[in-house]
Amino acid sequence: MSTVVRTRPDPVVRDAARVLFGNWCTGRTSAGRPFAFTAPDIRKFPAQFYWDSCFHAIAWAAVDPRRGRDELRTLLAAAEPDGFIGHTIFWDAPVRLSRRAFYNLVSGRDRMTRTIHPPLLAFAWEIVADASGDDPGFRTEGLKRLAAHYDWLRANRDPDETGLLALIQPDESGLDASPKFDARLRWQAHGLPGFVTLVRRNRRDRFRLEGIRARGGFVVHEVLTNVAYALSTAALARMGGGARFAGRAAQTERALLERCWDARAGLFADRPRSGRREVSTWAALAPLALPGLPAPIAARLAGEHLLDRRRYWRRFPVPSTSVAEPSYRARTGFPYRYWRGPTWIASSWLLHRGLRLHGRADAAEELAARVRGLVGRSGFREYYGPDSGIGQGARAFGMSTLAAAL
Ligand code: GLC
After folding, report:
1. Band of the pLDDT at 5, cuts 50, 70, 90?
2. How far, in Å, is the centroid of ligand 1 from the Cα of 126?
3. Which spans in 239-360 are helix H?
4. Could you report the per-residue pLDDT of 55-85, keeping only the tens digit for each?
5. Do 356 and 337 form a contact (C-beta atoms < 8 A)?
6. If you take atom 11 of ligand 1, which residue's CA is the nearest one?
7. Which of 14, 115, 173, 379 has the most CB atoms at less than 10 Å from its CB?
8. How close is the Cα of 106 to the center of ligand 1, in Å?
9. What are the CA-CA distances from residue 185 to residues 217, 220, 230, 371 (Å)?
């Protein structure tokens, strides 16, 4: 006689699916182009956001890979003929007049911002392809357009071929008001009134690197962006995108090590230096997600920082800014200044991957358990108090469903 073993559905996966389905948007543009994506939160952010979409697709891979594929296809379909894909895409309606000053648009008719987001598309594509046994053609169907997208990034954001992409605004990193930008931006930092001035000046330069660099504007080689870039170009090469992308991934990893690794602090930092001591934020640990990171460096990132109780290893890790920093805040408060302390699950997911890659499966498991416990008690909020676990911001937030992919 055979026994039937009934497994209960995992409650985290079940609840994550509810959030993802609730934020799912489909339709056609006025020109008849179909779209299907997950809004970060249907009420608070009713548009497609580049890096959110990549993370949503990774979460969908654990829930319903077909939707993950459609989400990434839609993001790639937003590419302009030259390969550019913006930070935010407004598929069904132009941005409201009252909000235009805050968006990185050149004209009111633009349906996409002229700024970028951490370029995780090819990285997410490979993860979703690995979960797509029912659609094996997915892995290669986007190769030409993905290659064009990464060629655009190199030509426009790394014109000197250093291996590192340059950012022209802090929000391009996904880490809007992170205190690591304070010394560079001062009164023009994200969330402060002067930020509108920064956007206005960049708009005059049509958000193009050359003009902004020529007048000495904000230009930075940011660590997380370049980790995303190296992960993606390596994935693109593995999917069949061509040897040039393997070469670019290796060049970016080398450049991160040679230019951004600060051996004294045991952390990675943006370049050029901001002139003072660098603020320790989770982005400084993000290179842990690179499989080829040398073991002694991985050991220092994990041992001296991520797993240190006084810095990042709090009850609900990983805080977006080290708790030991004077700029650390457990709450976002008002005016909203993101990434100055609260825990975001996207960061925990990426660093969890890094811990597993670098021989710390024990700590990775502990991190996964704490994150799952966090969403179990507080739901899928936008971000959380690292010690209290209190959820803040959006109430049904897409990126937090990554807890289901741990
Ligand atoms: C905030 C976050 C950014 C995210 C966006 C949409 O601007 O800082 O990382 O992409 O919201 O969720």
Report:
1. low
2. 23
3. 243-255, 295-300, 345-357
4. 999 999 999 999 999 999 999 999 999 999 9
5. no
6. 174
7. 173
8. 20
9. 10, 11, 26, 33
Å from CA of 184 to ligand 1 middle:
21
Looking at the CA of residue 344, tell me the nearest atom of ligand 1: 9
| Gap from CA of 42 to ligand 1 centroid (Å) | 13
Phi and psi angles of residue 41, each rounded to the nearest 5 degrees, phi first: -160, 120
- Average pLDDT of the residues in 89-114: 83
Tell me: the pLDDT tens digits for 216-239? 999 999 999 999 999 999 999 999
Residue 215's pLDDT is 98
Q: For the segment 140-192, what is each residue's pLDDT rounded down to a tens digit?
A: 999 999 999 999 999 999 999 999 999 999 999 999 999 999 999 999 999 99
Residue 4 confidence (pLDDT): 58
Computed from CA positions of residues 177, 287, 65, 142, in that sequence, does the dihedral angle turn out positive or negative? positive
Q: Is the CB of 51 under 6 A from ligand 1?
A: yes
Ligand 1 atom 2 nearest Cα: 174
The Å distance, Cα 406 to ligand 1 centre, comes to: 21
Pocket lining: 174 vs ligand 1, CB cutoff 6 Å: yes
**Residue (of 121, 115, 321) closest to 218 by Cα position:** 115
Per-residue confidence (pLDDT) for residue 99, from 0 to 100 = 74
CB 52 near ligand 1, within 6 Å: yes
**Which of 224-240 are b and which e, b meaning 16 or more Cβ less than 10 Å from the residue's Cβ?**
bbbbbbbbbbbbbbebe
- 40 close to ligand 1 (CB < 6 Angstrom): yes
Alpha-carbon distance of 263 to 269, in angstroms, equals 10
Distance 294 CA to ligand 1 centre (A): 31
Four-CA torsion 209, 114, 104, 184, nearest 10 degrees: -30
Q: How far is the CA of 391 from the centre of ligand 1 (A)?
A: 16
Q: Which residue's alpha carbon is at the smallest distance from atom 12 of ligand 1?
A: 40
Beta-sheet pairing, 267-268 with 48-49: unpaired
**pTM, whole model, 2 decimals?**
0.97
